[in-house]
Amino acid sequence: MYKKLSKILSLLLVAVLSTFAFSGCSKSTSTSSNTQKSSEEKVVNIFTWANYVPDDVVKKFEKKTGIKVNYTNFSTNEEMLAKLQAVKGSQYDVVICSDYIVEVMGKQKDVLMQPIDKANIANYKNVDTKYLNQEYDKGNKYSIPYTLGTQMIVYNPDKIKTDIKGYKDLWNPELKGSMVLVDDSRIVIGMTLKKLGYSMNETDKTKLDQAKAELKKLRPNVKVFDADTPHNSLISGDTSIGFMYGSQASAAVRANPKLKIVYPEEGMNIEEDNFVIPVKAPHKKNAEQFINFMLDGEISNAATTANEYINTNLAAKQFMSKEYLNNKAVFIPDENFKKGEHFKDLGDAAKTYDLIWSEFKQQ
């Protein structure tokens, strides 16, 4: 009886020890797995235009959080959308893109964005409410404003004696071979439609055919297409006049103060750029940390001072310099701003725009 009881107790002891051993092993494996996962999560993948988030801001974020930023850039919203569709909303953690493309993505059957949990982004309160709740994303379900920009004409008065007032002046035959255009179909076709007196979001085939014919007349004047650095050809003297983003116009004038900026009298495009998180973002929490960091007032000011776009952050105003506040390429007069038009989703007409643009560039 004693041996039998002793044997049973021995077996129970072995079982208990084995349980602890396996438990310890399991805990060790789990800890190792968590460490590996944590290590993998110290990354955030940003997808936007070149130089849109300044290097020093990126470095500050990395230093503060220990999260490495992988920065990938695109040239146009349409290029971004194609890449995001190709990876089915994965690979990237934060995308910074324009208002109308947020609208396009929001209407798709398989939405490529995930709703933003604003409770995890404390600095959301810093965003100026006049930039929230826009038509392209009511309630800001998927997007948070970063900056606001527009495009304008810049020219060298030493080389061009014509008085430049608007889009129509870009068609002057005297400008043959002297122009640089931002390489973006919506922007260039949009300004052509405005020249004709139409909306930048026109979808009527007859009116688009007119725009196509107008672009054919413009083509001899165009020497350079450049999405990222159109101002460089103005600075170098390779071109004398250009149509580009305000930040690019500012860079041109800073390099050559003789250059003049013109707000087209026909009306400008007003473009609101936003943070969005792709539906299958691999590092969602890091994405939220990055967006929250960018919405800090001091950081927001540092970013827009560097990229020279309109700041949408109320908390940033206390940090703004007089130079930034007086930058003609950044702060558009109210009378011009009120005439501005936002791009919208074109629906099936987007294919027509693509065809018009392709033919225009190949002429």
Biggest sheet architecture: 6 strands, mixed
Quaternary? single chain
**Taking Cα atoms only, what radius of gyration do you get, to the nearest Å?**
27 Å
The overall pLDDT, averaged over residues, is: 90
Overall number of strands: 11
Binding site for spermidine: 100
GO biological process, one term: polyamine transport
GO molecular function, one term: polyamine binding
InterPro entries: SBP, Sperm_putr-bd
Question: What features would you describe in this structure?
Answer:
- The chain is an alpha/beta fold and 363 residues long.
- The chain folds into 2 domains: 42-148 and 271-332, Periplasmic binding protein-like II (D-Maltodextrin-Binding Protein, domain 2), CATH 3.40.190; 151-269 and 340-362, Periplasmic binding protein-like II (D-Maltodextrin-Binding Protein, domain 2, 3-Layer(aba) Sandwich), CATH 3.40.190.10.
- The chain is 42% helix and 15% strand.
- The protein has helices at 2-40, 55-65, 77-86, 99-107, 185-195, 205-218, 231-236, 246-255, 284-294, 297-307, 322-325, 334-337, 349-362; strands at 43-49, 68-74, 94-98, 144-149, 151-155, 179-181, 222-225, 241-245, 260-262, 271-276, 310-311.
- The chain has a 6-stranded mixed beta sheet with strand order 2-1-3-10-4-11. Strands 7-6-8-5-9 form a 5-stranded mixed beta sheet.
- Helix 6 packs parallel to helix 13.
- The longest helix has 39 residues, at 2-40.
- The chain is globular.
- It is found in: Periplasm.
- It comes from Clostridium carboxidivorans P7.
- Keywords: Periplasm, Signal, Transport.
